[in-house]
Amino acid sequence: MDIIIFSGQSNMQGQCECLSDSTPVDGAVEFKFLTGCAVPLKNPVGENIKCDFSEGYTFTNGTDQDAWLRDHALGAACYGHTNLVPKFCEEYVHVTGREVLAVHAAKGSTTVKDWLPESASLDALVKKALAAKKYAEAERIFFVWLQGESDAIEGKSREVYKARLEMLNSILKTELGIEKFGIIRVGRFTMNAKDDEIITAQDEICVENPDFVMLTRIATELNEIPEYMHPQIHGHYSAKGLEKLGIDAGHALGEMVK
């Protein structure tokens, strides 16, 4: 069994318009930190974990966003809708023939700095992943990252973003023993040169540092196709878009492993 950790901000947490396929994925289960067990992997995925490690609540219609972000370290798919993780793992299992324990550890509106030391989100990610490792003897551990929109909004340079990603990778190698840091290259959010800094940083780090691997670059292509984008929320993917990202990235990781 392989452990795959899924982390990042809202497009990884899951913030699409509907619940689509909720069929359990053959050969894959999801680890739940709050109960210390694994459950069939299906939509919706994730857990709402507060900063004090108590059980939180799902972000849904009428939720106070500021309060939710302040209270939570990790979040489940918003509104109980679709996430990319099931399709990613389904494709990975299909390509490799290997079983998967999926660990979802994402939170919307986060910058990469929010996943560095002294942050509640990093603390929760590491604790959840360590608990998953204790639960199942894994042969390989991979980390999959979909994040960068918030750094683009803040106007972070490619140098700063890369340095922070390398710091996060170093922490995850030391604490969890991840084999590869897989990147789903971020899509466009600001729609200006600020996006280019983050996109270029992710391209460059996968060339410059062998710890990183680019899993897919199609997010920017999907930005141009309305059916793959959330019909109401700018910069977020539809259920169909998230599933396409998951299939493409899961296939790439599977081929690398195979």
What would you report as the Rg, rounded to the nearest angstrom? Answer: 16 Å
Principal-axis shape? globular
Order of helices and strands: EHEEEHEHEHEHHEHEHH
Structural category is alpha/beta
Strand order, main sheet: write it out.
3-2-6-1-7-8-9
Number of domains: 1
What is the CATH C level class, in words? Alpha Beta
What's the SSE blueprint?
Layout: E1 2-8, H1 10-13, E2 28-32, E3 37-40, E4 49-50, H2 65-71, E5 72-74, H3 85-96, E6 100-106, H4 120-135, E7 140-146, H5 149-153, H6 158-176, E8 180-184, H7 193-208, E9 212-216, H8 219-222, H9 239-257
Helix pairs in contact: 3-9, 6-7
List keywords for this structure.
single chain; 258 residues; alpha/beta; Rossmann fold; seven-stranded mixed beta sheet; two-stranded antiparallel ribbon; 9 helices; 40% helix; globular
Give a verbal description of the structure.
This protein has 258 residues and is of the alpha/beta class. It has one domain (2-257): Rossmann fold, CATH 3.40.50. It is built from 9 helices and 9 strands. The radius of gyration is 16 Å and the shape is globular.
